[in-house]
Here is the input.
Amino acid sequence: MIPGSPAAVRHGSRLRVAYLLVGILISITGGLGNALVSANLPQIQGALGLTPVQGQWLPAAYVMVNLSANLLLVKLRQQYGIRRFAEVALVGYLAITALHLFVEDYGTALLVRAASGFVSAPLSSMAFYYIMQGFPKAKMGSAVVVGLGISQLALPLAWLLSPALLDLGQWQTLYLFEFALALCSLAVSIMLKLPPGIRIQVIERTDFLTFALAAPAFALVAGVLAQGRLQWWAEQPWMAWALIAAFALLMVVFYVEHHRANPMLYTRWIGTMEVARFVFASLMFRVILSEQTYAATGLLRTLGLGPDQFQLFYLVILAGIVLGTAVGAIAFGPKTGQPMMIGAIALVIVASLIDSNSTSDTRPNTMMVTQFMLAFAGAIVMGPLIMNGVMGAMKRGPDHIITFIVLFTMTQAAGGLLGPAIYGTFQQYREHEYSGQLTQHVVAADPVAAQRLAIQRQAYARQVTDPTLRDAQGIGLLQQVATREANVRAYNDVFRLNAAVACLFLLWSVWRVTLAALKSRRVALGSSQPQQSPAPAGAAM
Here is the structure.
């Protein structure tokens, strides 16, 4: 056993099912809070009277704290035991969720979201352990695939549940539902406890120094990525100073950890090509999969669609995640990991190219096939990816697991911010270019433009009698149409850019697989050749 994890006990079939169901409940509970904020951010902004910049800080505050939480939580779990850790984590999550019900101002909302980012971090590991108890030891790889797949269900569930919950009251109703889920999770975790595990004395004073330095560094980077495209990168000096401060803090963290006898972060392992390839692959998968979370949803929102019209859209995404998780768990093995990752990248390329032909008439039903493909790809790829990282860490020793967990959670959270930051910036730039191209040809002397303006003026003929005001309203309506078309073209460029990035990533992945296959072949050929025995001493005479 790894210290801090529960024992691998042989359970009966009914008990395994119970552990699996509890793990699913805890996993959805832990991820639903931030998903509800992301899905209903415009409604929350309106209820609190916030600007888009202020509203974006709410999900950002969660990620800013969540990024560094596992630095301490892993060691706390190893020292105090998984059972105590699980109960304290759920009680803390329950308390923070209850505070959401009393939020009335912006400052309190930010503090509660930040606290939620910390207390929700242990729930993901708890859910994994419960799900693993539901599988036999020989199927631990499949258990990891299922655990990662279940953790992706929170966002589509938030979109599916939000309209019905908001119909019952204000946005606090969302957290009343989450509070009920947290209460159920606490009850079932007390009724069905995880098996005890190994406890070791691992916490040192220097751990708190490392956390105090790393936490603000990660938070600064997350804040810049979340706000860059809204406040615009080059117009806000605080972003440059934040990145400089984050870099300086991280350099101090690496210096402290590099010279420790028992470090939290093994810097010598982090500097290897093995870890660099893992971090690159993790980030790239998160970036190309943001075509679904940012580009597709953003395009449909730009076209005026509301949460009620996303129901079937996210139901299809939910089905894609479930099917991808099932296929990934069944097919999981040492020989299927690389083909599944390459297949997932190919699905992203195909889906992005299909979506790049969107128009202003595009609706959720026209994107369901591509979004199903993306959801399926995201579900089948994470299992092989995380198992490659785990095996690399375990080869170095169980004490490297903390470093791996921190790297994996960082790449997932940072990739979730990096994709929208890159594509959002590109989309805004292309939208301005297309808006200029569309409006520069709109002149009254142009017969086509004059006809379109006449049509727009007729829309206000019965409501506005003043000809001058009616002309102004018609011009404004035509400008809205031009802006909409410019946004559609810009999002199509985002889809094409994502396909191009995924193509480069696919080429890199195939190159890595080819090199590994050639190396294995050379080793096999070398081991198959018989070794010649040395000649006797007198044979040369």
